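User: My collaborator sent over this chain with a note saying "see what the structure looks like." That's all I know about it. Can you take a look?
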Amino acid sequence: PEPDESNAVPNSGLPPTFTGTSSDSEPRILLVEDNDINQSVMIEFLTKMDITPELAVNGRAAVELIQQEGRQYDLILMDCEMPVMDGYEAAARIARWQKANGCRLTPIIALSAHTMHKHREMAQDAGMVDFLTKPVTSEQLFTKLARYLELSVS
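Assistant: Without extra context I'll predict from the sequence alone. Here is the result:
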């Protein structure tokens, strides 16, 4: 079968980059991932898009950054399976806290190695707005980010 190119990113030979409303702004992205290799890969992809993410190593750390430190993000990339607090619980807590405090709801994209429909449903039930299956390619990541951020290929 032919690959579905309906969501394909134009290939200019250059990595896609973020272009915000001002020349010196970049999106504030929180990457919540416990695996060192997955962290490195995602950070490399984001860096090539001129995005420097903040890192949390588990769901509890992500919740604390938002609830206790008052951090605000344009988007959260949330691993679903982590020790201490999984991504499903963290996403639900973040969404509840943001609603209760009148904050803008931060889009949360689930990251999971699971491909079963039930995992997508669990992510949606937890308040996540989208889903990426690991291993993630830079093109897949860009396509998802472009849905929620002002991104362009430059």
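A starting point for your reply to your collaborator: DSSP finds five helices and seven strands in the chain.
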